[in-house]
Specification:
There is one protein chain. By secondary structure, this protein is α+β, with helices and mostly antiparallel strands. 28% of the residues lie in helices and 34% in strands. Strands 1, 2, 3, 4, 5, 6, 7, 8, 9 and 10 form a ten-stranded antiparallel sheet that branches. The protein is globular. The protein binds flavin mononucleotide.
């Protein structure tokens, strides 16, 4: 499965809460040359309770949770409005590592969402200004026209508001760290939120 030297992971020395371990593993993924370690799968459920999944960028992980941004009127945005729960999945093959999170999701206030967007690149603003995410597109020419206009506006007006653009925070109830092992003795350490902190347990691989 992995033709790389996998790091050792001793769950007995893991921190008491998952954010510290995630932060350490993220830094180690960057140091190991993992391509795009900040991309993650975001799973939601539709109005019938059926699963849906796509890739999004991690905008940060801190006391407010694991954050990502998208349009509130996109498919995922509508799903989150109806069922504000999601799961996130990271896969870092450079070290045979996976991190999974599940929990409720809240939308940040508009000012926080807009300042997160305006701190990003012109391309990110242009993409957000293009809008209509997840709607049916009539033709690629239509996209080219709208995208061109969005790029011009993003360059001219770096603080242009995008009312649908929303920063979301996932507050995990559970976070699982998976360390792959060449002999398939993979280590799974699961953190579960309790009333006053976190409980941990090992899981069979
Ligand atoms: C590497 C990568 C990163 C992406 N990051 C984002 C993102 O941060 N926000 C976003 O809205 N879409 C992002 N997308 C696009 C989504 O995967 C998806 O196509 C889009 O958000 C529409 O999803 P929906 O129809 O489920 O709402 C990214 C796609 C890829 C491949």
């Amino acid at each position: 499965m992995w033709d790389v030297d996998l790091p050792a992971f001793d769950p007995a020395t893991a921190p008491a809460e998952p954010l510290a371990l995630f932060t350490a593993w993220f830094a180690e993924a960057v140091a190991a040359g993992q391509v795009e370690p900040h991309t993650m799968s975001l799973a939601t459920t539709d109005e019938e309770g059926l699963p849906d999944v796509r890739t999004v960028m991690l905008h940060g992980a801190d006391a407010s949770g694991w954050s990502f941004a998208t349009h509130a009127d996109s498919r995922k945005g509508r799903q989150l409005a109806a069922r504000p729960h999601a799961a996130l999945g990271f896969y870092w093959p450079a070290q045979g590592r996976q991190v999974r999170l599940r929990g409720p999701v809240t939308a940040a206030p508009s000012a926080e969402s807009q300042s997160d967007l305006h701190a990003r690149s012109t391309g990110a603003l242009a993409a957000a200004l293009t809008g209509r995410q997840s709607q049916v597109l009539g033709s690629l020419e239509e996209l080219a026209r709208r995208s061109e206009a969005a790029w011009e506006r993003a360059q001219r007006e770096p603080d242009a508001p995008v009312p649908t653009w929303t920063l979301y925070h996932l507050r995990p109830q559970a976070v699982e760290f998976f360390q792959g092992d060449a002999r398939r003795r993979h280590i799974r350490l699961n953190y579960r939120r309790t009333e006053d902190g976190w409980a941990t347990e090992l899981l069979w691989p």
